[in-house]
Design goal:
Elements (H helix, E strand, L loop, with lengths): L1 E6 L4 H13 L4 E6 L2 H9 L4 E4 L1 H10 L2 E5 L7 H4 L3 H9 L3 E5 L16 H19 L1
Parallel strand pairs: 1-2, 1-4, 2-3, 4-5
Length: 138
């Protein structure tokens, strides 16, 4: 299973996702793509198998992934303080991969119906959603 983690800014969410996903799915191939160098470096230190930075790596990695995971902003152009380009958002949205989006109520993107949860609770829920997606494909 090829899991793509996309994150920006400092890469803290991506780091926590990678650590949790690695524990739950030790055989998964995890690719980290950061919208900036700091995010990529943080995710690589967390245990991603490979990583890259920027728009084109997001586009290419979306073609190869079975599951894409990241903050909900990865499907919104100009999200993450402008780090997500329109082409990045389109690549995620058009991918054949299952998408597990973490609902972050920040940066003027508010998700209705989402209760206030800790990052840890959101990550655990994401891992469970990845589990259900992978079980459906098998």
């Amino acid at each position: 299973m090829r899991i793509l983690i996309i994150d920006g800014q400092g890469g803290r969410l991506g780091k926590q996702l990678i650590e949790s996903i690695r524990k739950a799915f030790p055989a998964a191939e995890i690719t980290a793509v950061g919208t900036n160098n700091t995010a990529t470096a943080t995710m690589l230190k967390a245990g991603a198998d490979e990583g890259a930075t920027g728009e084109n790596p997001v586009i290419v990695a979306c073609r190869k992934a079975d599951v894409i995971v990241g903050p909900i902003g990865i499907v919104i152009a100009d999200a993450l303080l402008g780090e997500v380009t329109a082409d990045m958002a389109a690549a995620v949205a058009r991918s054949d991969a299952a998408r597990v989006l973490i609902p972050m109520n920040r940066c003027d993107h508010l998700v209705a119906g989402v209760s206030a949860q800790s990052i840890g609770e959101l990550i655990q829920d994401a891992v469970e959603k990845i589990r259900s997606v992978t079980e459906e494909k098998c």
